[in-house]
Amino acid sequence: MNSEARINIRKANPADAGAIARVHVDTRRTSYAGILTDENLADFSYADSEQIWNEALKKDQPATSMLVAETQEAEVIGFALGIPEREGSQVYRGEIVAIYVLDQYQRLGVGRRLFSAVAQHFLRHGIDSMLLWVFKDNHPARRVYESMGGAYLDQKTVTISGTDLVMVSYGWKDIAHLVTA
After folding, report:
1. Dihedral sign from CA coordinates of 134, 138, 140, 142
2. What angle is formed at CA 33 by the lines to CA 9 and CA 141, rounded to 5 degrees?
3. What pTM, to 2 d.p., does this model score?
4. The predicted structure's pLDDT at residue 43
5. 3-state secondary structure 60-92
6. Is 93:134 a contact under the CB 8 Å cutoff?
7. Residues 93/144, Cβ–Cβ less than 8 Å
8. Could you tell me whether strands 94-101 and 130-135 are parallel, antiparallel, or unpaired per DSSP bridges?
9. What do you get for the CA distance between the two ends of the chain, in Å?
10. Which of 28, 66, 86, 90 is the most buried (most CB within 10 A)?
């Protein structure tokens, strides 16, 4: 399947909350198996995720970019959320806080298109650099970010359901080259 030609990237709307929740939970369970505990993966429900995305999609924040990737049949298969950087970095002004693509659509360019669309949104809002945080043990995602020119920046420990996990950050000082036609 040549998914790139058949996948549409568009701005998410409140009606997408349930579909985004499905992608969020399903992708979290496949991508974070062996990183998060089985209990944590099982406890994160569609209803919990849908509530999170319902709230997020109600907010009107111009510099925030909430995008979905969908098939020609309008099935949401991925999403990305980009916001102004949260910790006050003077170098990296934007932050991708979520980028998820269903397992069967990974390695087909969908994530890169979402990534590019977030970068394009940031540039339209005067944000020319960005970073993201990823679990240190999420090697497939880290390889993608490195292949896209992300520079390793830092690491921090987060506690999720009583388990300490290391996250690492990657940054792009100039995101213009990330935008594709």
Report:
1. positive
2. 45
3. 0.91
4. 86
5. CCCCCEEEEEECCCCCEEEEEEEEECCCCCCCC
6. no
7. no
8. parallel
9. 21
10. 66
